[in-house]
Amino acid sequence: MTHRIGKTLSTLGLGVVLATGAVSGPLVGMAQAAGASDTEHERAARWQEIAKSIFGDRQIAQTDSLVKIDAPVRALDAALVPITLTMPKDGQIKAVSLIIDDNPAPYAAKFEFGPAADPAELKLRVRVNNYTDMHAVVETQDGKLYEAKQFVKASGGCSAPMGMSDEEAMKGMGDMRLKFAETAPGKPVEATLMVRHPNFSGMQMNQVTREYTPARYIDKLTVSAGDRTVFTMTGDISIASNPVINFAFKPDGKPIQVAASDNQGGRWQHSFNPPSPTN
Amino acid sequence: MTADAVHPRTFGAGPSRRHALFAGLCLCCLPTLGRAAESFAIEEVGPGIFVRKGLIADATVDNDDAIANVGFIVGKTGVLVTESGGSLADGRWLRAEIVKRTDKPITHVVLTHVHPDHVFGAGAFVQDKPVFIGHAKLTEALSARGEFYRKRLIDLLGEDRTGPVVYPTMSVADTAEIDLGDRRLTFTAHGPAHTTSDLSMIDSGSGLLFPADLLFVNRIPSLDGSLRGWLTEIERLKTLGATRAVPGHGPVAVDLAPALADLSGYLTVLRDGTRAAIAKDVPIEKAVTSVAAEQRDAWALFDTYNGRNVTVAYQELEWE
């Protein structure tokens, strides 16, 4: 199974092209997906290999308190699988990585938290290409690593055609919205960041030329409250198109800055006024 | 008016190991455990118009993906196939039913949209060299998804029963008309709705509308184009002058107005519920279990498709 991993593991690089397509409409139920028949042992061995390529020889301890992954056991749409990472221990988490073991580029995203972050809960949407284990690995402030996992049944998410032309998919690229949930004063504010970007996986076929659309994905996304960083995300092709990220931050009344870049040199920056602290 | 019905035949085999592999699919909906496509009846729903009701199920190893309402219209100069079938095997079955009833040439095959249960029967008609009629956007949609659908179907049915991806040879960007000598078929290319390649047709001989999957009856609609667009196209279907229609899924013919009312009822609840969820910051993973839940008893296969419909709707509506 090592051939699935490719050589781009240790960095968040472009994954290898493997399969075609995901389904929309009738065919939803006909899954005999790749990876469906792997044994527990095979999955564990694959994870060992991936973990080593990302984290080297560092020890990773199991945890059921520092991080928890919530994902649907069976994805309704393999190209948009909602993931919630819960990290309840305030102040202890430095970074979290999400790894989708059997995706062509398994290292889906890494979030490094800054002083304005409240990492208690983080949501994002990913593509899932196979029946796979998903791992969340947190790094605590003292530099230790802890992992949690969840098994997800989905298939074809990375190669799912977007159902529109590339031009249409790229319309408004870089547009952003930031929505704030109502919050009691003095509490962290929950926010939803939406970014218009096709996040082409490199595995989707161009509908007109019948060639693969080159991968074009958000590789860096930084959110700051004033001068203080909330988080920096390093992303890859496993993030679903039009990325949406829910996070929480500690407001100080200063504008929220969002800076995004993609692997083809696209750069976008937006500023948002946070809810008034007196509210 | 009823054509010779072909009665269900049961093939002896009991549930096989492959059934177990597809656990979770609705095998209970199948009339037999044999080859379902060979156990269908065809009904004459109008003069010279024959329709077979598709199974209210998803594609399985046993049903040849014969889940859509397929059929044909016998005109003076030739036969127009209204829907080709869900696999080569299903298309061959349909072709055999045509040949049983008429020796007129098969001159036209309509590919109503990109979904596999509507296009993979086309391979059975290639030998007749018909005009394959499709929406102007169908070619690009098929080139994006056709091979993927084909692989999926091969996993299920095997290569021999699946067939090739067949592309339209006549594309309809707005409207078009076909003359079969004694009747005219008028086509309308719709904006993004059920999919981005929906083509409807009206027969001048009977006044029947063939909206394909722009109209689901009893079976829950699946959303793969645009929710707002679909509600718009429903209004357009109402203006085409038809009172009866052959839906893409459901009974072979229905009164159009109440069927459209049921459909737009579901789609409206889906739209409004999804909008409300977005407005209240209900995340997508919670919305999929709550939005449109009140429609559950009204639709077959609700649990298979509703959550997915909410997912598609959410992505469309969150940017409003």
From TrEMBL, chain A:
It comes from the Bacteria. Residues 256-279 are annotated as: Disordered. Residues 52-158 form the Ig-like SoxY domain. Residues 260-273 have a biased composition (Polar residues). Residues 181-271 form the Sulphur oxidation protein SoxZ domain. InterPro entries: Fuse-rel_SoxYZ, Ig-like_fold, Ig_E-set, SoxY, SoxY_sf, SoxZ_dom. This is Quinoprotein dehydrogenase-associated SoxYZ-like carrier. It comes from Methylobacterium longum. The lineage of its organism: Bacteria, Pseudomonadati, Pseudomonadota, Alphaproteobacteria, Hyphomicrobiales.
Automatic annotation (TrEMBL), chain B:
It comes from the Bacteria. SMART domains: Lactamase_B (SM00849). InterPro entries: Metallo-B-lactamas, NDM-1-like, RibonucZ/Hydroxyglut_hydro, SoxH-rel_PQQ_2. Pfam families: Lactamase_B. Residues 67-249 form the Metallo-beta-lactamase domain. Gene3D superfamilies: Ribonuclease Z/Hydroxyacylglutathione hydrolase-like. Belongs to the metallo-beta-lactamase superfamily. Class-B beta-lactamase family. This is Quinoprotein relay system zinc metallohydrolase 2.
